[in-house]
Amino acid sequence: MAAGDVEAGDDDERAGGLDRAVRALGGQRGVAGQRQRLLVVVDRALDHQRLRTEYRYLRSERDELFDHYGIIGRSRAMQAAREWSCTISLAIRLS
Prior knowledge:
Elements: H1 3-14, H2 19-24, H3 30-66, H4 76-94
């Protein structure tokens, strides 16, 4: 495999790569082939959109649960440390 092949593959990935399905089915002719190519492209586009939506949701859930001033942890000691840091922060702002 040449370096250019790898770069071309990377470009396809960045572009979404959905047209690769069309090229893969390029040998089919007629209306049936066109319909099949369209179905493959639409199916992949829907999968891609579903995965992007799921990714955004999971990131927001993670951030909501674990992003407290960059402190990760759910133990009582970590909760106490977060509460203490919030108290100190509030005291500094009020002084």
